Here is the input.
Amino acid sequence: MEMDPSFRWDDKKFMSKQFDYEKFDVFPVAVELMALIDETVHLMPRGGGEIADLLQQNARSIPLNLAAGTTEVTKERKLQCYYDARRSTIQCAAMVDVCNRLELVDQDHLFANRDLLHRVLDMMTKLIEIEQEE
Here is the structure.
């Protein structure tokens, strides 16, 4: 199937229906974080491969766990997915700190990662609080 050359993700005619996970404010921010972490990984020198792999895996698991949570029927299973996404966020933050200590990437870039990680963490925490109250 060939993609329409005029396709854009932010175009309303292509986004007439939403998946449940797209209704969360945190989802696009988590995807933005994933892209920023990918950029960070590409700036790392050779030899940072293990840290780079772990960082990318955890960054990718944030939006994936968030999306998985929307498919769960029970509150407990839904919350577990959201906890997993929050845990991955914290693990990314710890790995960014390790990258900083090992001087794998310039500090300005790492600070941008930390800022976005804080934003995602705050949003995930709020989502969990709301889900617990329901």
In short: DSSP finds four helices and no strands in the chain. The CA atoms of residues 93 and 114 lie 6 Å apart. The chain has one domain: 22-133.
